[in-house]
Amino acid sequence: MNALLAYAIVFAQISLGIAMICAAYRILRGPRAQDRVLGLDTLYVNAMLMLLVFGIKSGSTLYFEMALVIALLGFVGTVALAKFLLRGEVIE
Amino acid sequence: MKLLPYPIASAIFLGFWLLLNQSLSTGQFLLGASMALIGGWALAALEQPKARPRRPLAILRLAFIVSADIVKSNIAVACIIIGFGRRERRPGFVDIPLELRDPYGLALLACIITSTPGTLWVKFEEPAGTLTIHVLDLVDKAEWINTIKSRYEQPLLEIFA
Amino acid sequence: MSSASEISALSAFFTAALLLLGSALTLIGSLGLLRLRSFYERVHAPTLGTTLGVGCIAMSSIVYFSTLAGQVALREVLIVLFMTITTPITLMVLVRAALFRDQTEGQDASRANIENAPRPRE
Fold it and tell me: Which residues in chain A are contacts of C30 at CB distance < 8 A?
């Protein structure tokens, strides 16, 4: 049964990697600025999930803190970018 | 100055502190409690309106309904993206007149609507109370208005009456 | 894969199942970014990853670390709560920014919506 877990971890890493590539493609291709911000939003969520999977793979709880920090900074970053698109300035 | 101006928020602070530190020892409990006190005073300085949720049973029932809906609409949107059920799909905006005015109720409604994939909170016009949402698979506007109002708004009106 | 051999078969099964489900849903959500045509449709796609995707992977992490440490470890609940609160804010601001940009450029969102609504499937 533990071999199953090992395969599941590999599958999760591959699919999250492909998901990150999709998000990166949306960032690079656009076509408009809001699409790029949406891609960034998806990218950081996927990266956070990837870190959680790394934590399961290594059995270390250190990855949790990294995932939490990425979630916090990613949220602040995407909201700042979206706010910039809305008004042309971040802080009014 | 009151000792605990926002009891719910302070309890949440304490809970988060204990979760983050993964321990229930006396020292962590005292640290978390002092965090909760200071956090409560900081919130009091911001002068936020107070939330008074009632009817814990209604909250539990709403939580159950919403989790079931999240699972259902996740499957539905996944099918749309993969391309099962090949038929015409018509995305669009829906205007919904709301009676709910409590800011915490509206915030919770925003979380519910956005958390169920396929629907998205766009904007809420304050004086008229019309909510605009975007729906990925819009079949019948009247049915969506009915669903949102009876399924989510009615329990929220009960809870934040 | 050193530590993955230390937990019982049942919790290994649940960890694996939740991991597969969560990562597959997140992948489908991100594929939606490529497959859906207009921006207002694409906004819906990442919510798959931020609701059940995050929920399932956090749950599998909870199951794994709880059996590994021999006590209940609920820290990942924080991530789920945080994502549930922040996703509506991000998407709401983003959609309003998109509407604002479309309107200022004279391209009405409702019209754009009608234009690409009934479309032939490939």
Answer: 18-20, 22-23, 42, 46
pLDDT tops 70 at residue C107: no
Residue of B37, B38, B77 whose CA lies nearest to C46? B77
In chain C, where the domains are located: 3-84
Domain co-membership, B61 together with B137: yes
Chain B contact for C10, CB < 8 A?
Answer: no
CB B124 within 8 A of CB B94: no
Whose CA is closest to B117, among C88, C31, A7?
C88
Q: Are C49 and C30 in contact (CB under 8 A)?
A: yes
Q: What pLDDT sits at residue C1?
A: 44
Question: Domain of B79?
Answer: 56-159
Give the nearest chain C residue to A64 (CA atoms).
Answer: C76
* ipTM score of complex: 0.86
| Domains annotated on chain A, with CATH | 2-87 (1.10.287)
Please enumerate in sequence order all residues whose Cβ is within 8 A of that of A42, keeping only pairs 6 or more positions apart, or say none.
Answer: A19, A22, A23, A26, C29, C30, C33, C45, C46, C49
In single-letter form, the type of residue at position B160 comes to F
Q: Which residues of A touch C33 (CB under 8 A)?
A: 22-23, 25-26, 38-39, 42
3-state secondary structure of B87: coil
Rounded CA-CA distance B68/B118 in Å is: 14
* Structure-token match 């440490």, residue found: C69
Burial of A42 (0-12, 13-18, 19+ CB in 10 A): buried
Gyration radius from chain B CA atoms: 20
**What percent of chain B is modeled with pLDDT above 90?**
2
